[in-house]
Write a structure and sequence with these properties.
Length: 701
């Protein structure tokens, strides 16, 4: 048998160990490490499962508190473990603190919190809870005073994030309350939610809530429902309906929210109704004139600090309203920007704009409405005080138009009003409207920044045909031509319209360029019985009498207006007036007399008096002067012959024609002249109580 021996140059190694390749060695190390990790995780899992992780309460409080910059406490039972793969958290008497600036110590507290959390959702994507059981949870949501931080944003940086909720598959939430506070809106609300039970991310019915709170100083209550809570649980869209009751108003809100606490940029349908729009807007500190009962709808969209209401439609009293407005939370005051329009405005609904209660105006009249404001009997101007302090709390820019004003006596149309309120100064400028008898433009400034409030009135009547202006006073339009224009400029101090006018100074003037009147009207105005009868029997009653020029003007001092002057020059006579009226008492004492330029028999030549009050004017045709003349005529008839009695009613026709230049300039009485350039001494001079110089008849009276 042949033996095989090793080659001399190849040494034989006895018992040499076999070495594994490097790749196999690394794989073996990885397996051992992974096995160690698995064993460790299992050991941790087993430890947590057995102990329920109760020993982690204090580390949990420290870690979560550090991450949220808040104090986190668990006062009762605590569990934190995997069961088996979801993280199970149990915390009784748990709380998370609010930041130091908040008014409540706790952002969140609950008697019992039990949740199963998807582990990976804590690291990636949307937070997800497989299950949630919450008992007597309380959430406090607040904004700080400067509105740049909120309590639910866990960061020291400025700016508050929207409130977000995790996805919840199965939940039971009982006894939950939410408190919301916004100092800029001066809003505080406390809500209580019905018990919520969901299964497989479905609740299956609406979730109701009730609440109460305060907006500024107005308390409110509310009820509401989440009509699609299944989508809310799944962080989807949520249909919300809510009804609030505040200051005699009912406000309904409905819309679809991206999440239960997010309304930014979301269109909401809003409807409101109540007895007074002023009561509604006064909730947010905005003052408007009182109205009768109203109902309105609009679409609300909140963007940042702006609350914009569009598609506004509704009615107040017997009038309609439409348009849009925006409420801006601009410190230190709210700002209102509005564009509104009314197709038909009932005259009764205008009453609140000058201080009257519209319901009283509608049922009992203007005088009763004025009396309700504190005015004396028979007065028309209201004594309703301006709400000065409220006017200083907000600014406004409002544009308002009206198609027609429904009125039985003075039809008004094409109203356009621009209102600006800033720092307590209210400007109604311009205010324009068309009457059936003339066009009016006005600028009114109410300066409530001063004490007492200072008001400036500037009201202008555009050149208007006299036929239109006077048609309501028995002057037929046919045969009457010419224009009339006027202006009222007054300034006064006072907290009501009546007070400011009663203390006002200024001037009121109406001028008439050349035109014509029916003879009938002129003769009746001067009580020229003879000429009137003659014209009537001759069939020439409608023969026009030409007006050369005329002015009706008053100088106002401390609320008392005195004629300065009243002077109308026609081709056949000169009409002069004296007296005046008072804004304080609203009493009138005016007298008009027409002196003929031509000889006339049976001319009364007696003043026609306008007396009484603004609310109860009276015309006094049979004046003492006319009675004295009748007595003189009777005496002449007894002493001489009946024909002699006629002499007492004869007008020799010596009235001096007026120069039209000063009249058309609405110059005061001192500047009035005859056509010969002589000063006139037969017109009122702007001083209360000054009488017009009497004219002598036939040189004997």
């Amino acid at each position: 048998m042949t033996e095989i021996s090793a080659a001399p140059d190849e040494p034989i190694m006895a018992d040499e160990p076999i070495v594994a390749p490097p790749r196999r060695r690394r794989r073996r190390i990885v397996v051992r490490v992974l096995l160690g990790i698995v064993v460790t995780i299992f050991a941790v899992w087993l430890l947590l499962y057995v102990t329920k992780g109760r020993f982690l309460r204090h580390p949990f409080e420290r870690v979560v508190g550090s991450l949220t910059h808040r104090e986190v406490k668990v006062g009762g039972d605590f569990q934190l473990y995997f069961a088996p793969f979801a993280i199970k958290l149990v915390a009784d008497q748990a709380s998370v603190s609010n930041p130091g600036w908040a008014t409540r110590p706790q952002l969140f507290s609950a008697d019992h919190l039990e949740a199963r959390i998807a582990p990976l959702s804590l690291l990636f994507g949307r937070r997800r809870l497989y299950a949630l059981d919450l008992v007597n949870g309380a959430v406090d949501l607040e904004w700080n005073a400067t509105h740049d931080r909120n309590s639910w944003t866990f960061s020291d940086k400025k700016g508050g994030k929207p409130l977000e909720f995790p996805t919840i598959d199965v939940a039971t939430v009982a006894g939950t309350t939410v408190r919301y506070r916004d100092p800029r809106m001066k809003l505080l609300a406390d809500l209580s939610f019905d018990t919520i039970r969901s299964d497989a991310a479905r609740i299956g019915r609406s979730v109701g809530f009730t609440g109460k709170g305060v907006v500024r100083t107005t308390p409110f209550t509310l009820t509401g429902s989440l009509l699609s809570p299944d989508k809310t649980v799944a962080r989807g869209q949520n249909k919300l309906t809510m009804r609030a009751f505040a200051a005699n108003n009912v406000i309904d809100v409905a819309g679809t929210l991206p999440s239960v606490a997010e309304i930014e940029g979301v269109p909401l349908a809003v409807a409101a109704r109540g007895r007074n729009v002023d009561e509604l807007l006064n909730i947010i500190g905005v003052v408007v004139p009182e109205t009768r009962r109203y109902r309105m709808t609009a679409q609300l969209v909140k963007r940042g600090t702006d609350y914009r209401f569009t598609r506004l439609k509704g009615r107040f009293g017997d009038s309609d309203i439409a348009g849009s407005f925006t409420v801006q939370q601009i410190e230190p005051r709210i700002h209102i920007d509005a564009t509104l329009a009314t197709r038909q405005l009932d005259i009764v609904d205008v009453a609140p704009f000058i201080g009257y209660n519209p319901d009283l105006v509608a049922t009992k009249g203007v005088v009763a409405a004025a009396r309700a404001t504190g005015a004396a009997p028979a007065r028309m101007l209201p004594d309703a005080r301006l709400r000065v302090e409220a006017m200083r709390q907000f600014d406004a820019d409002v544009r308002y138009t009206v198609g027609t004003v429904r009125s039985r006596r003075v039809p008004i149309s094409d109203v356009a009003l621009t209102t600006r309120l800033k720092a307590g100064i209210l400007q109604l400028s311009p205010l324009t409207f068309a009457m059936a008898r003339g066009n009016v433009a006005a600028d009114v400034t109410i300066d409530a920044s001063k004490r007492p409030t200072h008001t400036r009135y500037d009201i202008r009547l555009a050149p208007t045909p006299m036929s239109r202006l006077l048609s309501g006073f028995g002057v037929a339009e046919a045969g009457t031509t010419g224009l009339i224009k006027g202006r009222l400029q007054l300034e006064g101090d006072g907290e009501t319209i009546h007070e400011s006018l009663a203390a006002s100074n200024g001037r009121i003037a109406f001028t008439m360029p050349s035109g014509t009147f029916w003879t009938r009207n002129v003769q009746l105005a001067e009580l020229d019985i003879g000429t009137f009868a003659q014209k009537m029997f001759e069939g020439r009653l409608k023969e026009p009498v030409r007006i050369n020029c005329g002015v009706i003007a008053f100088t106002v001092r401390r609320g008392v207006a005195a004629a300065d002057p009243i002077l109308i020059d026609t081709t056949k006579n000169v009409i002069v007036g004296r007296g005046g009226f008072s804004f304080a008492t609203e009493a009138m004492d005016l007298a008009f007399r027409a002196d003929g330029k031509k000889f006339s028999v049976f001319s009364g030549q007696s003043p026609v008096g306008l007396k009484g009050y603004f609310s109860q004017p009276s015309i006094d045709v049979i004046s003492p002067e006319l009675l004295n003349r009748a007595g003189a005529g009777l005496g002449l008839a007894l002493l001489a012959t009946p024909v002699a009695g006629i002499l007492a009613f004869v007008d020799v026709g010596d009235a001096k024609s007026a120069a039209c230049g000063p009249i058309l300039r609405a110059a005061p009485a001192a500047a009035q002249r005859t056509t010969e350039g002589k000063p006139r001494d037969d017109v009122g001079n702007g001083k209360a109580g000054k009488q017009v110089k009497r004219k002598k008849f036939l040189g004997i009276f």
